[in-house]
Design a protein that fits this description.
The protein has strands at 2-3, 11-18, 37-38, 44-46, 50-53, 60-61, 68-69, 94-95, 98-100, 107-116, 122-129. With 137 residues, the protein is an all-beta fold. The strands form 4 sheets. Strands 2, 3, 5, 10 and 11 form a 5-stranded mixed sheet that branches. Strands 1-8 form a two-stranded antiparallel ribbon. Strand 6 and strand 7 (68-69) form a beta hairpin. The chain starts with a strand and ends in an 8-residue tail after the last strand.
């Protein structure tokens, strides 16, 4: 998952697990999975759970390469480019890797919230199926 900051303001963010509320809205799942759904936050592991993100982030891939540039940056070689700046690497998006490590042979569905101080956050719904079958590992 890539986290981007589209503003010019430093964004401080944190990732939190959002548990199911009793009597509240639940995550919609297929009818096959209704019986054995497990909401366990430890089944999904994140390599980064908080940080600061400078903006605007480099959110566009240059065609034919893996280099990222801001949306307003000219992509054509015919258009003059500004010289690279020393702090250019600070505007890279934050990459968050999610690892699924189930304990049971069940379907896992968990909701996590990216909460931004004085900003708009978002929810991430993680879903995975645990298995005791070694061929699935």
């Amino acid at each position: 998952v890539l986290l981007l900051n589209m503003t010019n303001v430093l964004a401080k963010w944190q990732l939190h697990h959002v548990g199911k509320k009793k009597g509240g809205k639940e995550i919609k799942i297929s009818r096959m999975e209704e019986g054995g759904v497990v909401d366990e936050k430890d089944a999904f592991q994140f390599d980064v759970t908080s940080g600061h993100l400078r903006g605007p982030s480099k959110d566009v891939l240059v065609p034919g390469s893996s280099e990222r540039v801001p949306r307003w940056f000219p992509l054509s070689p015919a258009v003059p480019h500004a010289l690279p700046s020393r702090d250019e690497d600070l505007f890279e998006p934050t990459k968050v890797t999610i690892t699924f490590r189930p304990d049971q042979n069940s379907v896992y569905v968990s909701r996590f919230r990216v909460q931004v101080d004085a900003g708009i956050g978002t929810d991430i719904i993680c879903r995975g199926t645990g298995s005791y079958n070694e061929e699935d590992d």
